[in-house]
Design goal:
The complex is a heterotrimer of chains A (134), B (582) and C (396). Chain A is mainly α and 134 residues long. Chain A is built from 5 helices and no strands. The N terminus of chain C is likely disordered. Classes of the chains: A mainly alpha (134), B mainly alpha (582), C mainly alpha (396).
Chain lengths: 134, 582, 396
């Protein structure tokens, strides 16, 4: 395995071969970028993007997440395998959320009493108990 | 292999026997040296004891269920509370079997013992985490026991809402237990993935790993990916019960189908946590006891990974009748069939391995053969249930019960027993009575089929599962099933007695009693606490050509032809012993 | 105890070079790099489990938001954006100091490591302090999970409720007292090692109350905005000095992080000013406004039978603010932020352990794994908050 392949002589005094210190400038730059993006997120909330709002917000959050992962979590300098498994986990999250959310949206009409549907319920009070706690 | 004397003039390689100070069982004494051990082998043995106890308890509950169903009106539980009792018994049977026995059985008990030894490593990557996961298992078990003592559990092992949020039984204790057991499972899986990735010795490439390790690796992937979702589901369920968070409880606008999605996103992959390691065991058993190279090594290895990944796409087939949208049900039904492909690849490869092999009908092989038969039935009946239209008819009937028992008992349990018999000499350094072992395999096979074959018929005729009473027309089949369960129980008892007797009076086991070529057979039986004195030379795990039966000592030994040094004048010539490359 | 630790050195000669194990290298690893790689892979896998663990709640969020967007929009108004934004900043800053700590451990800068770890811990405490204010405020208003929900718009701030804030603060106050006593005892007895641990820890514990103070000032600002209407600017001005003080306390401890800390103050002020200038954010948590919005969203469908069915809610209530609708939002809010807060607490636990080891100078360029692993965990906690903040606080 790789650990054995290139580790025969890593007991030398310098021993920097598997430590990759991140420079202070990079860290600070990433931090300011993150803070800036936070400001943008907060600021955009006051504008109305309508249907795109969730997409905008998630996009900014994802950019921030990528920054954190790439630099703070050293993903760029790390073994690619670690990055693959971590990013791979989002595939499974995607599967899970996609199927569950999709199914829920297709069936929600069958159990969720809609606001507008409650109007006839006034005439027939028995149905309203679907919504209310006994 | 045929009996005979060893070829003369060759070098015999055999590690011999461990001294008591090397033997991992005896190198340190006292109960504390076990309770605080970081040795993966001792942890494996403790798991083995633990899961056996859990299996015993849940097995007795199963016998109670079967005895109760001996008569249409119920035989054991009488009176007002009869149905309640029945509900509690089948719930605990299911929950204990699933969470405390099947999930940790092969990966945690056998896996802990075998993974580092097969790999040629000294230990798993995180020995402390390993011990921690064993104690998490113990705590989880204690939670289950306390749930049992408090007010029982009657939700079925699936904890479906809304019943689980309204029943008076101790759902919170049991779910906390399952939550903790989930973490035990996660840590075991995590440990194995890291061990297999980073601790392989030089020469052990991915495709020189025994197939048991591939199966364990695939299992571990599922454990790491799926179990956390169970964790959050159970946590939300606890929150639902205590604070009524309204995510699952329809009374507060929640959606019970969502709970089922959450639950099965874990629990369907969990089915593969249960069966994949069994596949790994069988791959090794078939090859070793047929003394023939495994057929289609790469296909078996890849199919394990394929099953692990496809297993995440099919959870909805547990919920066809639960009120999913019709589009979702169709998608899940179609995806379900994809899983049968890698499963079938495995079965065909096992059969091809046996073809023209020289099969020794040892106890482990008997179990392996019965596994192939039973698992095939279990797998094929799964297709009926994966088909949308037939499942509408068969859902929640005994057909389902029979199907998953064929997979879980006929598959996992039988493979687990086969594995225990196969590695028992390695684990404890004793040979058991071969006749007794074969008898147990026969009894288990017969008893199992007698128990569960009638249930397919019961189910297809409309007998619903989880009912404490039934129509008299089902009585004959139910009685057959009950007799079968008695036979099955007796067979398992025989197996236990055979194994325990061997500890007292068994013959001392040689390092390699079966002729296996994987690394665990290259250390002494039982292994020394450091596994290998020096890192073993890693060869092909399924190359049996240099193993010879030593009739005198009743053992297999590695025979190396006398070495000849390549003459200096022709350095490109192959040395004689270097013909083992694949 | 363990069979293995008593074992003699075995099986290392296969590489041809017979090296003795340094004390930090576990017996079953051959090289420090193998040990580091194993740990690293292990922690990444653990993060994978964490991602999937949280995915359940994100899934629940998505389902219920898709089902009832107007409920999420309405209820989000009850969350204080300023507190959320400040907490985001604090967590981002803690991520910076954590990444810096990893750098320090790799370069064997022992003092810097202690300082950056203490800064990370302080940020974690400020975060929890602010969270304590948010939680206790909502407990008091009855904005609770569906089953416990008792919010009454005609009386949004019932005066008689248990002192939630005191309950939440009590364990931290105890911890602070304990650490301070420890500090004094170790100073008096001259135990330099213990003193070196207790000193940063006392600042860390203090930071919880800095967070509480910060939260109180901002939250009470919101209160006044509730009833009068403007005052965003005074809010921003009033809180800035407090923040500055908070940041300075922390920065004083975290010597290497001073520069960044100053920058942090500046940035947070920017956040505040932007918040303050924006007229839409003035009365963010004004329950009356929120109610009006929901009324608009829900249309005219006031159900007359509501009073009977939902006893706790007044008859004039719009149906968005019922336990079964708004309650679910707050359920998800508490589950997500609560479990996130539990992760912060766990992170504080391991960070304290790291701090002790850092004071002991355990780490070197061959053995900095634990700092790196905890760092990865901490960044993940930050990552999750990066998503939680806009999803919960910024629904418009």
């Amino acid at each position: 395995m790789s650990a054995h392949a290139h580790s025969e002589d890593d007991h030398s005094a310098d021993g920097h071969d598997f430590a990759h210190p991140m420079s202070v400038q990079t860290l600070l730059a990433v931090f300011f970028a993150l803070t800036f993006l936070t400001v943008i997120t907060v600021a955009q909330a006051s504008f109305d993007f309508g249907a795109f709002e969730v997409a905008t917000v998630m996009f900014i959050a994802t950019v921030k997440a990528v920054l954190v992962m790439a630099f703070f979590m050293h993903m760029l300098a790390d073994k690619p395998f670690n990055a693959i498994i971590f990013i791979g986990s989002f595939v499974f999250v995607g599967l899970f959320v996609m199927f569950t959310l999709g199914d829920s949206m297709m069936t929600s009409h069958s159990f969720e009493p809609r606001v507008e549907e409650l109007a006839p319920a006034v005439a027939e009070p028995t149905i309203t108990t679907v919504d209310g706690a006994p | 292999m045929s009996a005979g004397s060893l070829p003369s003039g060759s070098q015999v390689k055999d590690p011999g026997y461990p001294t008591p100070s090397e033997n991992y069982l005896t190198n340190s004494k006292g109960i504390l040296s076990w309770l605080f051990t970081l040795d993966h082998k001792r942890i494996g043995v403790m798991y083995l004891i633990g899961v056996t106890v859990a299996f015993g308890v849940a097995g007795l509950l199963a016998l109670m269920i079967r005895l109760h169903l001996f008569q249409p009106d119920g035989m054991i539980f009488k009176g007002e509370e009869a149905n309640n009792w029945y509900n509690q018994v089948f719930t605990l049977h299911g929950a204990i079997m699933v969470f405390l026995f099947i999930i940790p059985s092969v990966p945690a008990a056998l896996g802990n013992f075998l993974v580092p030894v097969m790999l040629g490593a000294k230990d798993v990557a995180f020995p402390r985490l390993n011990l921690c996961s064993f104690y998490l298992w113990v705590f989880g078990a204690l939670f289950f026991v306390s749930a049992l003592c408090a007010s029982g559990l009657d939700t079925g092992w699936t904890f479906y809402t809304p019943y689980s949020t309204t029943t008076d039984s101790s759902v919170i204790l049991a779910t906390s237990g399952a939550f903790i057991l989930g973490f035990s499972s996660i840590f075991t899986g995590l440990n194995f993935i890291v061990t297999i990735n980073t601790m392989r010795p030089p020469g052990m490439t991915w495709f020189r790993m025994p197939l048991f390790l591939w199966a364990t690796y695939a299992t571990s992937i599922i454990q790491v990916l799926a179990t956390p979702v169970l964790g959050i589901t159970l946590l939300l369920l606890i929150a639902e019960r205590t604070m009524h968070i309204g995510i699952f409880d329809p009374e507060y606008n929640g959606d019970p189908v969502t709970f089922q999605h959450f639950f099965w996103f874990y629990s369907h992959p969990a089915v593969y946590i249960m069966i994949l390691p069994a596949f790994g065991i069988i791959s090794d058993l078939i090859s070793v006891h047929s003394h023939k190279r495994i057929f289609g090594y790469r296909f078996i290895a890849y199919s394990s990974i394929a099953i692990a990944l496809l297993g995440f796409l099919v959870w909805g087939h547990h919920m066809f009748t639960a009120g999913m949208s019709s589009l979702t049900t169709i998608i899940f039904s179609a995806l379900t069939f994809t899983v049968s492909v890698p499963s079938a690849i495995k079965v065909f490869n096992w059969l091809a391995t046996m073809y023209k092999g020289s099969i020794s009908l040892t106890t482990p092989m008997c179990y392996a053969l019965s596994f192939i038969f039973l698992f095939t039935i279990g797998g094929l009946t799964g297709l009926h249930l994966g088909t949308l239209a037939t499942d509408m008819h068969l859902h929640d009937t005994y057909f389902v019960v029979a199907h998953f028992h064929y997979v879980m008992v006929g598959g996992t349990l039988v493979a687990f027993l086969g594995g225990v018999f196969h590695w028992w000499p390695k684990m404890f350094g004793k040979m058991y009575s071969e006749a007794g072992g074969r008898l147990s395999a026969l009894l288990v096979f017969a008893g199992f089929n007698l128990t569960f074959l009638p249930q397919f018929i019961l189910g297809s005729r409309g007998m619903p599962r989880r009912y404490a009473t039934y129509d008299p027309e089902f009585a004959a089949l139910h009685q057959m099933s009950t007799w079968g369960s008695m036979l099955l129980g007796f067979g398992l008892l025989v197996a236990l007695v055979v194994l325990l007797r061997s500890l007292k009076s068994g013959k001392r086991a040689p390092a390699n009693p079966w002729g296996g070529a994987t690394l665990e057979w290259e250390c002494t039986s039982p292994p020394p606490f450091y596994n290998f004195e020096r890192a073993p030379s890693v060869g092909d795990p399924y190359d049996f050509s240099d193993l010879e039966w030593d009739a005198e000592d009743e053992r297999y030994v590695k025979v190396e032809p006398a070495r000849e040094i390549v003459p200096e004048e022709q350095p490109e010539a192959e040395p004689v012993h270097a013909d083992d490359s694949k | 105890m363990s069979t293995i630790e008593a074992s003699p050195e075995v099986g290392h000669d296969e590489h041809g070079h017979d090296h003795d194990h340094p004390p930090f290298l576990a017996h079953h690893f051959d090289t420090p790099e193998q040990q580091f790689d194993s740990g690293k892979l292990g922690i990444w896998l653990f993060l994978v489990t964490e991602v999937l663990f949280f995915s359940g709640m994100f899934c629940a969020y998505a389902i219920f938001r898709a089902l009832r967007p107007e409920v999420f929009e309405g209820c989000s108004q009850f969350l204080n954006t300023k507190l959320g934004a400040i907490n985001t900043g604090v967590l981002l800053f803690s991520s910076l100091t954590m990444a810096w700590a990893v750098r320090c451990s790799q370069l064997e800068q022992h003092k810097g490591l202690v300082g950056t770890l203490a800064a990370t811990l302080s940020c974690a405490m400020i975060f929890l302090g602010v969270k304590a204010i948010e939680y206790s405020h909502k407990f008091g208003m009855g904005l609770l999970p569906a089953g416990l929900f008792f919010y009454d718009p005609s009386n949004p701030h019932p005066t008689e409720h248990p002192p939630y804030l005191a309950y939440i603060c009590a364990p931290f106050a105890l911890a602070l007292a304990g650490v301070l006593i420890w500090l004094v005892v170790s100073a008096v007895s001259g135990n330099k090692f213990q003193f070196a641990i207790a000193k940063p820890l006392s600042v860390v514990c203090l930071c919880f109350f800095v967070g509480v103070g910060l939260g109180t000032v901002l939250e009470s600002g919101e209160e006044s905005a509730d009833h009068i209407d403007v005052h965003a600017d005074p809010n921003g001005l009033a809180t800035a000095p407090v923040m500055e003080q908070a940041e300075k306390t922390m920065a004083a401890e975290a010597a290497p992080a001073i520069a960044a800390s100053g920058a942090m103050v500046a940035v947070d002020e920017t956040v505040l000013k932007i918040l303050a200038k924006d007229p839409a954010n003035v009365g963010v948590v004004s329950s009356q406004n929120a109610l009006e919005q929901q009324t608009a969203a829900a249309g005219t469908s006031t159900v007359t039978g509501d009073g009977e069915i939902l006893g706790a809610i007044t008859t004039t209530e719009v149906d968005v603010m019922t336990p079964t609708t708004a309650g679910v939002f707050f359920s998800i809010y508490y589950c997500m932020t609560g479990i996130h807060a539990i992760h912060i607490l766990a992170g504080i636990g391991v960070l304290v352990w790291l701090l002790v080891r850092a004071v002991r100078q355990d780490f070197n360029r061959q053995y900095f794994g634990p700092v790196d692993y905890v760092g990865l965990y901490w960044h993940l906690v930050d990552l999750i908050w990066i998503y939680l903040f806009p999803l919960l606080y910024l629904i418009r």
